[in-house]
Write a structure and sequence with these properties.
It is elongated, with a radius of gyration of 40 Å. It contains 26 helices and 19 strands. By secondary structure, the chain is an alpha/beta fold. It holds the Pfam family PAS_9. This is EAL domain-containing protein. InterPro entries: Biofilm_reg_signaling, EAL_dom, EAL_sf, GGDEF_dom, Nucleotide_cyclase, PAC, PAS, PAS-assoc_C.
Length: about 725
């Protein structure tokens, strides 16, 4: 047995499922074992299925063996397989791997199909063995007839007439010489009517290619037998499916004399196989085609003559909230209604609607006539889903959906590429506001891929030392002295060159990499700041480091900052940590929990981009904050200096009010994005403490800052 590496199954669940399975079989009326023995056998089979389900790599073959083993154990009542598959589909995942049914759904379907296939093969082999015994009896009787004609004739007739399977004998011209009653009953004819029929008249129009050629080769003596699954028309024109075995009988000289056909009615088995195939290819909840059938049809499009293809990938908005608030029953009923509406919305167009799993559906537009056709399908689907849904006594539910649309030429792409693009486009539709469709854009797709590539490269880039720090001066507006520098991280990509921070900082925050990156920035900035402190102790230069929200909320951040200060020897007062306004003064909930602990280490705390949020300003007097950094847009508004410009005047008044507020609370104020002397003069007149921006210098290397400090000694 392969090693179970995905999840461990529940042994208690195995026992419970085996007990349920045994009871389901016993309810059929006859089981060839005692209840205890039946449960023990089925428990062994259940454990094998469970181990197969969670094993890596996953192979469904053991389930095929379970199906055959059931037949070998004489569980051959036809209804037993139906009950087994029904019980498996409803309870197996729930009991054996509780809590992870979505993760193993496709594997469970594969196990179910393999078990059914093994069961069907076991029945088939069992029947073949019976047929072989009958055949031997027939020909034994025939041989005996040559020794004792009367006795053998009686014995032969007994077997021939009493056989449960159909037997027919025909000459080489195809004229039926004799048939037994079972064969006549299968086809709905009398024995006399059957003897007037030529075997060629029984060939079904859509028989497997080559069947007629096989028969001709047999009567010509080129082959001695053939075995096929064949359809017949009954007398009432209904379809009979049979397992047909035809043998050539030769005379003493080896010349063909006649053919003997042995026919078993397998219509029920065939219909069962068709039901099993339907179950394997359709979603049990909604009845829609499942992902397996969808991908079969999608692959057929690429293998066929279609020139274009369209895919609409749909996901319900807020479905989890429905499940969580109203329960899974309501959620399931909602999915059933949505599935029915989606199918109806595109049925006239002949498109395939499939359920991919959860609340995801997909519509296949085969041989699309262009983008407009795919968009029309998506809009029809959105309209169908948007209608309120009434379930039992609950208030009507209003749901929306987001759809990603991909429509393109078949040539030059693949099913995998199409589905990747559809998944990406669905994400765009969600990000753009939900309740809408989005059409795949190659340019946007390429940008998305580039972002993903950058995100994947971030950890390795840090390990390879591709990040560096630059420092932007912060200058006293009155003295003109260098008071502080802000540490800014830069990525020197070996292929892309310098990657701007706005392209990778957001990615680092999304992926959680910002914690590692922020830790590295803090360490490097403090190492450099300690060097400046040792060389220029009188400068009192403060190094300001940005602290991301996730980094500030990380466990142990206070100890981490204290440890960096201790290792580098940098006085705590010469480190300033910048946090965004939304992190320090949220509109709801509590501010960063570690804020007071950080302040207790002696470092300065600054609010970055102050004025861009809608915070409760009462927080300012309660939190250990030392400085405000005014957001750039306010400072940019001071650029014109035109008192007639009402916007400029308003910005000046806002800056004035913010500076007064900060000073009243004992805080210093830094103006960001100062680019002109005119702005600096206005800020100086408003009593702003320090300025940062291109007027005082852009981000530069540590060596340049060192040179600047030396020049002002």
């Amino acid at each position: 047995m392969r090693e179970a590496t995905i999840d461990q199954y529940s042994r208690e669940g195995v026992r419970r499922y085996a007990r349920l399975w045994a009871r389901a079989g016993a309810a059929l009326g006859y089981v060839p074992m005692s209840p205890d023995e039946t449960e023990r056998v089925l428990r062994d089979h259940t454990m094998l299925l469970a181990e197969t389900l969670v094993a890596e790599p996953f192979v469904a073959t053991p389930a095929y063996g379970v199906g055959r083993a059931l037949v070998d154990a004489h569980f051959t009542v036809p209804e037993f397989l139906d009950q087994t598959l029904l019980t498996f589909g409803r309870r197996f995942l729930e009991l054996v791997v509780p809590g992870s049914s979505g993760k193993h759904a496709d594997r469970a379907v594969a196990l179910q199909a393999a078990l059914a296939a093994g069961y069907a093969r076991g029945l088939r082999d069992r029947t073949f063995a019976q047929q072989e015994r009958i055949s031997r009896a027939v020909w034994s009787a025939r041989n005996q007839a040559e020794q004792d004609l009367r006795a053998s004739e009686a014995r032969f007739r007994a077997v021939f007439a009493g056989a449960a399977i159909g037997i027919g004998i025909a000459d080489l011209d195809g004229r039926i010489i004799d048939v037994n009653q079972a064969f006549a009953d299968m086809l709905g004819y009398s024995l006399d009517e059957m003897r007037e029929i030529n075997v060629t008249e029984l060939f079904y129009p859509d028989d497997a290619p080559g069947m007629w050629d096989t028969y001709k080769e047999m009567i010509e003596g080129k082959r001695d037998g053939a075995r096929v699954e064949k359809r017949y028309f009954r007398k009432d024109r209904t379809i009979l499916w049979t397992d047909l075995s035809v043998s050539l009988i030769r005379d003493e000289d080896g010349q063909p004399r006649f053919t003997v056909a042995m026919v078993e009615d397998i219509t029920d088995r065939y219909e069962l196989q068709e039901r099993l195939r339907f179950q394997a290819l359709h979603d049990p909840l909604t009845g829609l085609p499942n992902r397996t059938l969808f991908f079969e049809r999608l692959a057929a499009v690429f293998d066929g003559a279609a020139t274009r293809v369209g895919v609409c990938f749909l996901d319900l908005d807020g479905f989890k909230a429905v499940n969580d608030s109203l329960g899974h029953y309501v959620g399931d009923e909602l999915l059933v209604v949505v599935a029915r509406r989606l199918a109806a919305s595109v049925s006239a167009r002949g498109h395939l609607v499939a359920r991919m799993g959860g609340d995801e559906f997909v519509i296949l537009v085969e041989d699309s006539s262009g983008t407009d056709a795919a968009v029309a399908v998506a809009e029809a689907a959105l309209a169908a889903v948007a209608e309120p849904v009434k379930i039992d006594s609950h208030q009507p539910l209003s749901v929306t959906a987001s759809i990603g649309i991909v429509e393109r030429e078949v040539r030059g792409t693949s099913p995998t590429d199409v589905m990747k693009a559809a998944d990406t486009t669905l994400y765009w539709a969600k990000a753009d506001g939900r309740g809408r469709w989005a059409l795949f854009d190659p340019v946007r797709g390429a940008h998305q891929l580039a972002r993903a590539a950058l995100a994947a490269a971030l950890p390795g880039a840090l390990d390879r030392g591709e990040f560096t720090l630059e420092y932007q001066p912060i200058v006293g507006l009155t003295s003109g002295r260098l008071r502080a520098v802000e540490a800014l991280v830069r990525w020197r990509h070996p292929e892309l060159g310098t990657v701007p921070p706005d392209r990778f900082i957001g990615l680092a925050e999304e992926t959680g990499m910002i914690v590692r990156l922020g830790r590295w920035v803090l360490e490097q900035a403090c190492v450099q700041a300690a060097r400046w402190h040792r060389e220029f102790p009188d400068a009192g230069l403060v190094v300001s480091v940005n602290l991301a929200v996730r980094q500030a909320n990380a466990p142990g951040i206070v100890e981490e900052v204290a440890g960096v200060l201790e290792r580098t020897g940098l006085p705590a007062r010469q480190l300033q940590l910048e946090l965004t306004e939304s992190a320090v003064m949220p509109t709801a909930g509590e501010p960063v929990r570690s804020l007071r602990g950080l302040a207790d280490t002696g470092v300065r705390i600054a609010i970055d981009d102050f004025g861009t949020g809608y915070s409760n300003l009462a927080y300012l007097r309660r939190l250990p904050i030392h400085s405000l950094k005014l957001a750039g847009p306010f400072i940019e508004g001071l650029r014109s200096g035109d008192l007639a410009d009402s916007a400029s005047v308003a910005d000046e008044r806002i800056v004035d009010a913010l500076v007064r507020l900060a000073h009243a609370l004992g805080l210093t104020v830094t103006a960001e994005a100062v680019e002109t002397a005119q702005q600096a003069d206005l800020l100086r007149g408003l009593d702003c403490d320090t300025g940062q921006g291109l007027l005082f210098g852009g981000a530069t290397s540590a060596d340049d800052i060192t040179a600047r400090l030396r020049s002002t000694r």
